[in-house]
TrEMBL record:
Family: Belongs to the precorrin methyltransferase family.
E.C. number(s) listed in UniProt: 2.1.1.133
Catalytic EC class: transferase
Occurrences of domain Tetrapyrrole methylase (ranges): 7-214
Pathway: Cofactor biosynthesis; adenosylcobalamin biosynthesis
Name of this protein: Precorrin-4 C(11)-methyltransferase
GO biological process, one term: cobalamin biosynthetic process
Length: 275
């Protein structure tokens, strides 16, 4: 009787700090017979949870075909094979390209989500991505590099919504980000925050600037890779003198889990929504 093939687990390693891997992801690493990790973006320390004798391979110098062949081979020998990816595997992670050969070979696979660098960058900078009455929408995007943007997704068009933008893979194209935001009518003093290596101990850098000066500030800090660009009308809100309150925690606003402790009118808010 032949043994069942192993399962390939696409595990989100989170943004860098090994403590930001999910408990589920860590448990899988502890049981893994083989781990293929994206060494260009995932710190090797993320494989510290692997058991002794686990096969560990950095995919940095491999092609997609090479990675698929490695995973298929590992599955023939191990019940648990982990592909460890930076952040969340579903964002700019070539997930489909890797799962299709597995499907074709009849190998089962699953995905374990991870903390995306978009969230880690906001956390590092102490910023919120949504703010009542300012922006309630987050766009995760990039500018065109060697990968073109599909029709309708040019940054200029997305920026016209004036929502929060988390811009991946674009730090070397900051001039293009500036051009697009200007074309969409963002003012020169619009705040922009760039976070380099969010959550990496000793390496994280947070650069705060404006549309006008963010490129120069990043050049001064020599940031040329692994950076998240956050552009949002909510940036810096913790320093604003006036702020619309989130209705969820307002004393005048009751909901499913809490009765209002004062009338909505006295709390100075409009009714009609729940959060
Ligand atoms: N799946 C990943 C994104 C991979 S694409 C995620 O969910 O985060 C690689 C891009 O992600 C980089 O160019 C950079 O824009 C961003 N990135 C990844 N790790 C980062 C980190 N620790 N700090 C800031 N940006 C990061």
């Amino acid at each position: 009787m032949t043994a069942l093939p192993g399962t390939v687990w696409f595990v989100g390693a989170g943004p860098g700090d090994p403590d930001l891997i999910t408990v589920k992801g860590r448990r899988l690493l502890e049981r893994a017979g083989a781990i293929l990790f994206a060494g260009s973006l995932v710190d090797r320390s993320a494989t510290q949870f692997a058991p002794a004798h686990c096969e560990i391979r950095d995919s940095r110098d491999m092609t997609l075909e090479g990675m698929s062949a490695w995973l298929l081979d590992a599955c023939a020998r191990h019940p648990v094979v982990v592909r460890l990816q930076t952040g969340d595997p579903g964002l700019y992670g070539a997930l489909v390209e890797m799962t299709r050969p597995l499907d074709a070979a009849g190998i089962p696979w699953r995905v374990v989500p991870g903390v995306s660098s978009a969230m880690a960058a906001a956390a590092a900078a102490g910023e919120t991505l949504t703010l009542p009455e300012v922006t309630q929408t987050v766009i995760l995007t990039r500018v065109a590099g060697r990968t073109p943007m599909p029709p309708g997704e040019a940054l200029e068009a997305l920026a016209a919504h004036r929502t929060t933008l988390c811009i991946f893979l674009s730090i070397t194209l900051l001039h293009e980000v500036q051009r697009a935001l200007r074309a969409a009518g963002w003012p020169e003093d619009a705040p922009i925050v760039v976070v380099h290596k969010a959550s990496w101990a000793g390496a994280e850098k947070i650069v705060r600037g404006t549309l006008a000066d963010i490129k120069r500030r990043c050049q001064d800090e020599k940031i040329a890779s692994q950076a998240m660009i956050l552009a949002s009308p909510a940036l810096g809100a913790r320093l604003w003198p006036d702020l619309a309150r989130s209705k969820l925690y307002d004393p005048g606003f009751g909901h499913r889990f809490r009765k209002a402790s004062m009338p909505a009118a006295a709390a100075g808010i409009a009714t009609g929504e729940t959060a």
